[in-house]
Amino acid sequence: MKTRRQVSAGGVLVRTGPHGPEVLLASRRTRRGDLVWGLPKGLVETGETPQETAVREVLEETGHGGTIRGPLQEVSYWFVWEGTRIRKTVHFFLMDASDEPPGPRDREMEEVRWFPLEDAADVAGFDSEKKVIREAVQAVAG
């Protein structure tokens, strides 16, 4: 079986909500059709830094802009797609939401919603992203 690497980047977009810090999650369908909440992320394009990708992907997938505050942990995992084993690494960044109203977003996301930062890890569908959100909670609190 062929093997290849993919590098992606994404963001934990935070803002101050009416009751404290909030994080933006987006929901999408898995290949099985299940709805899962997660962090916006996507492939690093040629000539793009992971930071640039994170800002672009957050905007494209959620319609919300943001600026990078700092790096969070990287997540790596394996999956098989169309007969190829893929080793994917995702660089995550803590981001501050802009004050601009949201614009259009990708249709692949069914819904985009702000969650209290303390609750967002419980809502996220993937253990690796739960860990990234918990790291963001500590960074925002610290």
Order of helices and strands: EEEEHEEEHH
Number of helices: 3
CA-based shape: globular
The largest pleated sheet is described as: 7 strands, mixed
Known CATH architecture: Alpha-Beta Complex
The helicity comes to: 10-25%
Q: Structural class of the secondary elements?
A: alpha+beta
**How many structural domains can be distinguished in the coordinates?**
1
Mean pLDDT equals 93
Low-confidence runs of at least 5 consecutive residues: none
CATH class value:
Alpha Beta
What's the CATH topology name?
Nucleoside Triphosphate Pyrophosphohydrolase
Radius of gyration: 15 Å
- Superfamily (CATH H level) name: Nucleoside Triphosphate Pyrophosphohydrolase
Amino- and carboxy-terminal Cα gap:
45 Å
